[in-house]
Amino acid sequence: MPRQVLSGFFLAIALAWAGAPATAAKYAAIVMDMRNGQVLYSKNADERLYPASLTKMMTLYIAFEAIKNGEITLDTKVSISRNAASEPPSRLGLHAGQKVALRQLIRAAAIKSANDAATAIGEAIAGSEQAFARRMNKTARALGMTRTTFRNANGLTLAGHLSTARDMAILGRALYFHYRQYYGLFSRRSVVAAGKTIRNTNRKFLAAYRGADGIKTGYTQAAGFNLVASARRGSKRIIAAEFGGRSVSQRNSKMARLLDLGFRRAAPRVRVVPPPLPVYGPRKPVLVASAVSSSPRPMARPRVSPVETAGMKLAINKAVSRVAGAPAPTAGPVAGQPAAAVGQPAPVAVRRVARAVAPTLRPVPREQLQEAQEQMPGDDGQRVVMRMSTSGGRGWGIRIGAYPTRMDAEKVLLRTALEDLSSLDGALRKVVLRKGRYQAQFVGLTEGRAKRACSRLRVWRQNCEILGPTG
Hints:
Helix content is 38%, strand content 17%. By secondary structure, the protein is an alpha+beta fold.
């Protein structure tokens, strides 16, 4: 008998020996090679069951997608609705009318599995939880999740809110490959969100299984104890999903056996095949109500009189002379005006223009020029609009490394911003090209916050250098 068949046979015996699943939740599981999506083991993998808080993986996927598309930012302040604030546990404890940055809600949904945070994310992106559920289903279809239907953003039990172990494994792979810059969040044991330190609902498995680095737990009475987990050992990376566990300890024990099976069956080296990005179909053409009947000429540019032209030139020359310390010039001859006007006071209209223009022609301070340069498009065409302000004592910053590409630096900044660093809330992310390397910086901090941020980063073995007000 082939080794793989024997392994599956003994695994089935072991899972059955651990106890039958709760009567309200049928057990289902699947194991995939994360690198190419190959299925290494499955049991009831296409059975439609309640996903519980595994749903929040899709909520977070869409949140990351919306950030990438420019629909919302990590720093957007989300106003908490009564609907979100009234969600049952697990919850962060948000209050109606409270304003919370999106990054805080993402942390709470990913780590604490907070239902109120997940609902608030959906409402902030789509306007309502119902509209967000429609977007979730559209994204699920685009990702190839053919047997999933979402009804809400948090996974609380609703009729028709169903998914499968296979579909959740597909979603887990999509999160890993499409938004890897955020994936490290799922392995954090604890984070700070909305001023509260919260602990990962998956911390026991993360601590117990070697190589585990995510991804999401789920539980309701109807669903049982669900888990999607990923782990890496050497060149192999495995992802598995299971539905219908009877307890946390039993679920974790089964998941460990599933991942062990995956590592045994996976080939040491395979070609990595990332899942394709979701395609939402071609855009509808814009219909024109009627054909264009005429194309009028553009209006002529208004003429500037010789007197106004002379006034502007005089104002510019005076401003330049003040800067250089030279005597202010007088008005020269103006076309259409008598030569006797040379050296005489300018007409009233000219003086009025000069007074309006001259105050704007002051020397530009060096730091303003530097800020303007930092806002120019980079070598890859992306615009960096992050600058270090020296007002209010917030001219300090930190540098967390230099990287070969701008994308590498931006990924590190995004990942760090999402992690347990309350001292970085409100800081600006900045990428600076120096000596052929892209430096990742957080700026706009006070001296104390910069020092605290570096101290905490160094505890996590992250390089960090404090930048003074001069940068």
